[in-house]
Design goal:
This protein is an all-beta fold. It has one domain. The protein contains no helices and 8 strands. Strands 1, 2, 3, 4, 5, 6, 7 and 8 form an 8-stranded mixed beta sheet that branches. The radius of gyration is 14 Å and the shape is globular.
């Protein structure tokens, strides 16, 4: 089932899309033997399960994490963690540690706002694919 529309609770966040966004897909397979991927906002070379969005600038980050859908089953949650640019990280303990079970559930079509320099997505279980949209910031 393709993504054919975005269901946002308000139209204001669309203004942020002028800077662009990054769309990532995670399925149920391990990557380099690990059950998660890590996406970093800065510039770098992809290695193992770490991917770089190559956003230029001194403090590259995203200002939103959007549950952009799943295939197979509607309404599935996506387990994520995120490292904050300022303040506490987005995880069960306030400290992102992608190898630990500190993932929180991003519910269907939710958008979490903040300043995030990296995002971790846990592999899907029973759902073929997760789609996460990361909204770029300034």
């Amino acid at each position: 089932m393709p993504i054919n529309k975005l269901n946002l609770s308000e139209s204001g966040p669309l203004a942020y899309d002028q800077l662009g966004f990054d769309l990532y897909r995670k399925d149920g397979s391990n990557v380099s033997g690990l059950d998660h991927i890590i996406i970093r906002a800065g510039e770098g070379t992809n290695t193992s399960n770490i991917y770089y969005a190559n956003i230029p600038g001194p403090d590259p980050h995203w200002i939103g994490i959007h549950h952009a859908g799943t295939t197979g089953v509607s309404g599935e949650v996506i387990p994520i963690q995120a490292e904050s640019l300022v303040g506490d990280d987005l995880s069960k303990t306030g400290v992102a540690s992608y190898n630990d079970a500190k993932y929180i559930d991003l519910t269907s079509m939710d958008v979490i706002r903040g300043k995030f320099k990296s995002v971790g997505i846990l592999k899907s279980s029973g759902v073929p694919e997760y789609y996460v949209r990361l909204i770029r910031g300034v």
